[in-house]
Amino acid sequence: MADVDAEDKPQRPSASADKERKEKSSSKKVATSATDLKKIIGGRNLKFEDFDLRATVGTGTFGRVRVVKFKGNPDRTPMALKILKKSEVIRLKQVEHVKAEKQILTMIEHPFIVNLLSTFQDDKRLFMLMEYINGGELFSYLRKEGRLPNDHAKFYGAEIILAFQYLHSMNIVYRDLKPENLLIDSGGHIKITDFGFAKVVEDRTWTLCGTPEYLAPEIIQSKGHGKSVDWWALGILLFEMLAGYPPFYDENPFGIYQKVLAGRIEFPRHFDVKAKDLIKRLLTHDRTKRYGCLKNGAEDIKRHKWYKGTDWDVVFARGLPPPFTPTIKAPDDTSLFDKYPESTEASAPSISPKDQSAFFDDF
Ligand SMILES: Nc1ncnc2c1ncn2[C@@H]1O[C@H](COP(=O)(O)OP(=O)(O)O)[C@@H](O)[C@H]1O
Ligand SMILES: [Mg+2]
């Protein structure tokens, strides 16, 4: 059965509507910042029916992310609505993860991390309303380019290093670094999305989660893991950006784990020697020797010779020139994302009142 609701029909303007839109467009307001958006939302109790729906920009295990706008509001700023099916969240035992996702996103604010605007729920679904980042996934850009030049990988790496340093300073481990979760904003800068695996940790934590290619040895070996896993994943990401493929690869997860544990990395010959040195220090099995995990923390990475001459205050201020700025026709442009069949996840089964109060009353 197709899971399509009336409001899911493609919304194509007629030629006259198009003309009208062009004439009106100069008077249409678009909020510029997440702060403006938060003001518009205020203390409102949001519901799904408050939104006009636009394209799906991503799908995941429990649901999808759609671009939305407020119905009948003069502000036409597009936002991203993450829709999760409660039944799937329960079935896949992700209740605690979803709650942590909300809790952590509510706590944080950083130039390279997506802003959460609000959350709400109905009987079947959980909703997270975020700012919409319209430049697409780093994943798509990387696949299109094949691999990135040294300086470009360095730029994206720098922004992620600052975001991780910030998260770790708040005892938050991100645990899901990969190009699919890295969005490019309209200015060409990174925004990390998807805090579905993020966790507040005191020291180490033990759950097996993440994506096989990016898992650190201590996760696979269930030795417990903390902030160190993010620095390992950074090593994988730097390698993948520069090579165009991840360092440990196999058709199936088990094969990947074996390669991670064997720890042999074949660096392509074109790699910059300094990049290679930093990647080796990040992809160090022994986490007591891994860069990022030593007593100077992220500073060791920031002071590594690959980043020689980098002014980290400039990085933080979004002052480094980005490798490219996405070509965006309008704030609600979705052309840089893959196309997905539409749905509102309304076909999800309702959950029992018992499950509701056990799992989601406090979402
Ligand atoms: N704020 C956002 N703006 C634009 N696209 C987004 C945003 N958040 C997520 N996406 C897109 O939706 C995809 C799925 O969202 P994500 O939070 O990663 O869900 P999942 O936990 O299912 O992986 C992302 O890979 C990204 O392409
Ligand atoms: Mg994701």
From TrEMBL:
Belongs to the protein kinase superfamily. SMART domains: S_TK_X (SM00133), S_TKc (SM00220). The keyword Nucleotide-binding applies. Keywords: ATP-binding, Kinase, Nucleotide-binding, Serine/threonine-protein kinase, Transferase. Residues 344-355 have a biased composition (Polar residues). It comes from Vitrella brassicaformis (strain CCMP3155). Residues 7-26 have a biased composition (Basic and acidic residues). SUPFAM superfamilies: Protein kinase-like (PK-like). Residues 1-31, 339-363 are annotated as: Disordered. Residues 308-363 form the AGC-kinase C-terminal domain. Residues 51-307 form the Protein kinase domain. ATP binds at K82. It holds the Pfam family Pkinase. GO terms for cellular component: cAMP-dependent protein kinase complex. One of its GO terms (molecular function) is cAMP-dependent protein kinase activity. This is Protein kinase domain-containing protein.
